[in-house]
User: Which sequence fits this backbone?
């Protein structure tokens, strides 16, 4: 009995917290020209009148310049814009208002303090405004994730992808698949329950099987996108690798146009991993400068650096492998076959040749120090299609690499399009893969001869539907029944 009472009290407290009117600073912290403080919940109108004055009445979505006061003393706090958003036509779906005030820490602190003294109001916890928007069906989970990505976007391509997702591109795509799966499950259950009454068409199973095959193919194509959306969201993990003293650090400094790594004439200057995020043509690139890959060394620090470099290479989305153009010229590396033989000879003992050349990972080989070659030698080496010749001492040859690098980034990340939204989160990928598995199990095993109990088959479709509903945060058990009564005239 005592435990039950505790549960009831906790539940009431949770409901009270969830139904409270919340407020928070919605703009960035720190001194600025204008700061925005947002209020949302059932007591918003009372809070607005308490701060601005009871005589004021506001039209929805109209900005008013008003003085803001302390409710207790009517002392003026500031003068700013006030906006009123009655629910459900607001961001959260509840009554909302915004105070746009001068962005000093004193003004912000005073207004937040006085809002906190009003009955029924409390400070919002992180993400609570968006959580209420989700609860009130203003956003689904894919749109919420897209909004979070948009807030953290650092490049133009990231912004485009996040904006499309926050605007519902993935939501619409997944919602359409969900509708098809619900319809198929509803038709199957109707067939199970009513086929003997001859009120269900004989081709129901054939039609839903064809629909399921089409949806499975669409989901599989969406999942098998080479992780383009995830790579764009997280940044292209680009590792700069190669032997000591081939110019890796100089190359990083040149590409980023600033002194990131220490450069000396001493081989093996870089011992640890140096990481840098750079906006390259609108694409986010996470450069990693690594220790030189040496076949033999007794230096324990250098050995650890090589170990870390190899690990970075294994995890990279893109490898920029630098070679010494002068050394390649001495070995007369003038064809792709000779380049492969050279890499096998020099790097197979480091367990890198197979991971770079045979694994499904993109590698760009770069021959640095091209300024040491004469024009004829340089032209011969440029005939190797997999090799780009550059010189970190001049801009001319680097431009060729920059153009090739931008094309590589476009291939890796793709172009965000509303017509073909990209899968952007690992969670989506895992759940969609499970969805495909459930559909495949149904298509593989469903047969009246194999399954005497068709309800087992129907459960596979319910599980497929649930996978998509978990992604969008829309889990319901009544949808299938709704479709049954809509699509079938039972008992006619």
Assistant:
């Amino acid at each position: 009995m005592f435990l039950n009472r505790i549960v009831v009290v906790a539940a009431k407290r949770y409901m009270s917290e969830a139904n409270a009117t919340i407020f928070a600073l919605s703009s960035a912290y720190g001194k600025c020209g204008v700061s925005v403080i947002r209020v949302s919940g059932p007591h918003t109108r009372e809070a607005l009148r308490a701060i601005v004055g009871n005589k004021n009445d506001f039209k929805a979505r109209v900005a008013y310049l008003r003085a803001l006061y302390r409710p207790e003393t009517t002392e003026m706090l500031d003068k700013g814009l006030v906006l009123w958003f009655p629910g459900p036509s607001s961001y959260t779906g509840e009554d909302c208002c915004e105070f746009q005030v001068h962005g000093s820490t004193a003004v912000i602190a005073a207004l937040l303090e006085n809002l906190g003294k009003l009955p029924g109001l409390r400070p919002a916890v992180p993400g609570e405004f968006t959580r209420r928007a989700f609860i009130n069906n203003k956003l689904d989970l894919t749109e919420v994730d897209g909004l979070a990505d948009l807030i953290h976007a650092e490049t133009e391509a990231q912004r485009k992808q996040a904006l499309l997702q926050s605007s519902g591109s993935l939501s619409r795509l997944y919602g359409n698949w969900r509708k098809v799966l619900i319809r198929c499950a509803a038709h199957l259950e109707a067939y199970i329950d009513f086929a003997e009454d001859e009120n269900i068409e004989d081709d129901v199973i054939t039609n839903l099987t064809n629909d399921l095959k089409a949806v499975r193919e669409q989901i599989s194509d969406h999942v098998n996108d080479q992780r383009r959306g995830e790579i764009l969201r997280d940044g292209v993990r680009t590792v700069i690798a190669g032997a000591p003293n081939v110019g890796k650090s100089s190359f990083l400094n040149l590409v980023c146009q600033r002194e990131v790594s220490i450069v000396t004439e001493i081989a093996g200057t870089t011992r640890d991993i140096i990481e840098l995020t750079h906006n390259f043509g609108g694409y986010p690139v996470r450069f990693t400068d690594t220790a030189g890959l040496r076949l033999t060394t007794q230096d324990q620090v250098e050995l650890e650096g090589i170990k870390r470099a190899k690990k970075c290479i294994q995890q990279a989305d893109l490898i920029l492998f630098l070679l010494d153009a002068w050394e390649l010229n001495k070995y007369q590396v003038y064809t792709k076959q000779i380049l492969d033989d050279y890499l096998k000879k020099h790097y197979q003992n480091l367990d890198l040749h197979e991971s770079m050349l045979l694994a499904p990972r993109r590698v760009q080989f770069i021959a640095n120090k091209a300024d040491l070659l004469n024009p004829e030698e340089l032209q011969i080496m440029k005939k190797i299609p997999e090799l780009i010749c550059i010189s970190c001492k001049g801009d001319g040859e680097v431009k060729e690499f920059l153009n090739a690098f931008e094309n590589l980034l476009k291939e890796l990340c793709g172009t965000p399009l509303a017509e073909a939204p990209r899968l952007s989160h690992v969670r989506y990928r895992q759940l969609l893969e499970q969805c495909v598995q459930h559909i495949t199990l149904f298509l593989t095993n469903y047969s009246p001869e194999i399954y005497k109990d068709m309800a087992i088959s129907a459960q596979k479709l319910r599980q497929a539907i649930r996978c998509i509903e978990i992604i969008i945060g829309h889990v319901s058990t009544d949808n299938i029944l709704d479709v049954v009564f809509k699509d079938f005239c039972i008992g006619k």
